[in-house]
């Protein structure tokens, strides 16, 4: 039972078929092929607007590239203190941007506190040339606490960004899960809420290497094309990335996969919540569950082959992640195992 990440899942069979089908014949390279054009159009239709699409193969590349286009080397990117770009992508943003600073802001359940955010921005501005100047607000949707932003919440940060002439970025490694959980459309969770650029990932949702930078600010388009090439992330055989996108966007497969993953997380959360010895500090809104469980139980689960992460935000907190391939039987087996072991503690 592997609940450590949605990255542990394989690729959806439709994605594998699409990649094999894309292997036929010879086609133009570097994104000038018909599949790439079709995938770009499909994404523009999904977002209901003209937008620039840049396919890449990792979420780190997507985040670092779009943030480098938004933030000068002397600028600062403000994010939650537990954000992935700050804690789990080494110094990729700093490298791609030429030295921009990442500033972590505390906040409940993975969302930076708006008041604390403004105070940090004001402090940097007051120091003038002696401080990295505020350039971007970056939010993760789904957050590192498994919570989801609504369009109205995103607009709060848009207003802050406007006040200080900053850009607004969303790390959407689990954007599909956020869309399904919120009930909002991709457009409502992006440009209609004031987002300038989005890192949209489907690798965790049935793809192999299925990531894209989606930019709604036309001023970012040209430099991103050059930045992607300079960074070594322009695939010569881009048709294989495009094929994955088309497979997942076809017949709403990306939504189905995310909906299933979210449902499995809620199933697990309901089972855990029935035990008074297990605390659930954060609401379960997408496909991640963060219970605080007794240490002996955590050790026992690992000894019995259950894979999950320790999550050191709170003492004894763990992280369980479900994905498109997680079965109800796996979840029920875990719930039963936890119930059985708790009786003996």
Give a quick precis of the structure.
This protein is of the alpha/beta class.
Report what the structure shows.
The protein has 345 residues and is α/β, with parallel strands linked by helices. Helix content is 43%, strand content 14%. It is built from 13 helices and 10 strands. Helix 1 runs antiparallel to helix 10 and helix 2 runs parallel beside helix 10.
Query: What overall form do the CA principal axes indicate?
Result: globular
Helix content: 40-55%
Largest sheet: 7 strands, mixed
What is the residue-averaged pLDDT? 97
Tell me the total number of β-strands.
Answer: 10
Number of helices: 13
The CATH architecture designation of the largest domain is 3-Layer(aba) Sandwich
Tally of individual domains:
2
List keywords for this structure.
3-stranded antiparallel sheet; Aspartate Aminotransferase, domain 2; 345 residues; alpha/beta; 2 domains; 7-stranded mixed sheet; Aspartate Aminotransferase, domain 1; 13 helices; single chain; 10 strands
Task: Compile the SSE list and pairings.
Layout: H1 13-22, H2 34-47, E1 52-56, H3 59-70, E2 75-80, H4 84-87, H5 92-97, E3 101-105, H6 114-126, E4 133-140, H7 151-163, E5 167-172, H8 175-182, E6 197-201, E7 211-215, H9 221-230, H10 239-249, H11 253-273, E8 288-289, H12 295-303, E9 309-310, E10 318-321, H13 328-344
Parallel strand pairs: 2-3, 2-4, 4-5, 5-6
Antiparallel strand pairs: 1-7, 6-7, 8-10, 9-10
Helix pairs in contact: 1-10, 2-10, 3-9, 8-11, 11-13
